[in-house]
Predict the 3D structure of the following.
Amino acid sequence: MTSHVSGRAHLLRFFMRHAIKTRMHATPDIDRIRASMERVARFAPDRPKGVTVRKTVISGVAAEWSAPVATSTDRRILYLHGGGFVSGSPRTHRGIAGRLARGAAARVVVPDYRLAPEHPFPAALDDAAAVYRALLDHGVPPARIAVVGDSAGGNLTFALLLKLKAEGAPMPAAAVGMSPFVDMTGSGESLLTNAALDPLLHAAGFPSVVSAYAPGLDPANPLLSPLFGDLAGLPPCLIQCGSDEILLDDAVRLQRALEAAGVSAELEVWTQMPHVWQVFARLIPEAKTAIDRISQFLRARLGEGEHMGKAA
C-alpha cells in the first residue's frame, strides 16, 4: 500500500505508544483492559450516519445488528470483534460494523461472544458457529454471507471456517482478517523484529492471552492456530495488516498458506499502521480507505442476490 502516512496517523501512533503500550499492555491485566475498551466506547462513541443499530439474541447469543438505512439487502456479514479473547463487545466495534454495513450494503451482526478466562476455548468459537448456523437456518444463502474479524476475531474467523469445513457445513462467500492473530505458538519472526516498532502490542503479553483462552491446550491445534490447519476449500480471503505490527508474520504466512492450499487470498500490508487501525475511521484517513477496500472486496463477492431471508 501507499508509503505515505498521515499526520493524524502519526499522532495516533504516538498516543498508543505512550498512553496504552507502556501503561497497559506492558503488564496485561484483564479487568483493566476490559474497562479501558468499554470506556473508550462509552465516552467516544462511533455510530456512523446512515446506519441503524438493533440489539438481539441469536441462538442464545446476545448480538447487535448494524444495517444501512433505507436499504433492502440480503447480504449478511458476521463480524467477530477483537480484544484478545478477553475483552471487547458489539459496542466497542460499533463504528467499524456500521461502516461495513454502509460500505458493503449489508446487514452486519456482531455477536457478544463469551469471553475468557471465565469462558475459555471453545466458548467463543461455539458462539460464532451458532450465529452463523442461525443465519443459514433463517434462509440466508451462504453465497450472501461473509465472515470478518479483527485480531482475536480474525483468529475466530479462520477457526470458524475450519470448523465449518470439518462439519461439512456450507462455506460463506468470503472472509476478511484484519491483523489476524492466527499463530498461538508464537513462531512468527515479527514478534521479535517488530517488537520495538509496534506502537501498541507487547509480545510479552501474548502468553497471558493464550493461557486465558486456551489453558493447558496445545497451541498448535488448528482451531487455536488456524495457520496450521488444512486451508483447502476455504472461500476467497482478504487480509490487512500494518507493516510494523508484531503480528505481521501471522498475516504474511496465512496468505501464503492459503495460496498454497489453492485459496484466493489477497494481502495488504499498510505502511506503519497500528494494530487494527481500521477501527479509528473517525480519526485517520487510512482507516477509511482500508474499510473502503474491504467493502469493495465484499461487494464483489456477495453479489446482488434477490432472495431475502427473514431476519435472524
The first helix runs from residue 7 to 25.
